[in-house]
Amino acid sequence: MYLQVQIREEDQDDCRFLWRDETQEICKYRLTRVCFGLTCSPFLAVSTVRVHARRNKTTAPRTASEVLCNMYVDDLATS
């Protein structure tokens, strides 16, 4: 789920890293998606899902309710 959440462009520099092979110069990379290992990743993923559930309360009320009431971290527990 994390890789489906885009990082805002103004925050991508905070997720920058450097890579270098022995034969090449240093390359700069920036993450554009939320990745595993960031302390904020669970919050960003869950809050994104909750925002979309709230936005779609009128078009899909049952689905929105299930997501908002039965989601724990990245698991949806319903029966």
TrEMBL record:
<dbReference type="InterPro" id="IPR043502">
    <property type="entry name" value="DNA/RNA_pol_sf"/>
</dbReference>
<protein>
    <submittedName>
        <fullName>Uncharacterized protein</fullName>
    </submittedName>
</protein>
